[in-house]
Design a protein that fits this description.
globular
Length: about 170
């Protein structure tokens, strides 16, 4: 395994030379279904993008963090809110519902030293802010980013390129 020095310049192209959606055309259908399910309007688009940005930060994916930072800007998030996602616990830029969503994505994606990742207490806190359909949508939003995490980490699409075709 080749290890790059942290001072090396990152590669300019994706690790996987061919677009996965061209190699496995069914991915487009799955992706479209996920976007439709998550975009049902029960959870604000900005909240979903906050969750997706935090997921990208947790897994250290430049592609996902750049992508979801752009989506947050388009959704009207302030620079202060965007830049404090990594430290949301002590940031004044998030409301209770956003904090609950960020806590949930962290619980799902990070190992827990206390056993269960999503405790009954966390579930109850999240459920205080989200009706059942919205909570199901939020769970699907975490699943959606999980689907793309594998692509982002294995194939390494180029950060900053179009969301619809990061292999161009």
């Amino acid at each position: 395994m080749e290890v790059r020095s942290i001072t090396d310049v990152a590669p300019k192209g994706p690790r996987l030379a061919e677009d996965p959606s061209k190699l496995v055309p069914e991915l487009a259908e799955v992706s479209a279904a996920l976007f439709k399910a998550v975009g049902n309007g029960s959870v604000p688009r900005r909240t979903i993008s906050l969750v997706h940005l935090r997921a990208g930060q947790i897994v250290a994916s430049t592609y996902l963090t750049v992508l979801h930072t752009g989506f947050l800007r388009k959704a009207g998030a302030s620079d202060e809110q965007i830049t404090s996602v990594a430290s949301w616990q002590d940031s004044p830029y998030f409301d209770g519902a956003e904090r609950a969503a960020l806590a949930l994505v962290e619980a799902v994606l990070q190992p827990s030293v206390n056993g269960e990742r999503v405790s009954d207490e966390l579930y109850a806190r999240v459920a205080e802010h989200y009706e059942p359909k919205a909570l199901a949508t939020l769970m699907n939003a975490i699943g959606q980013v999980g689907f793309f995490i594998a692509i982002a980490l294995v194939a390494k699409p180029v950060a900053g390129r179009s969301f619809t075709d990061p292999w161009e």
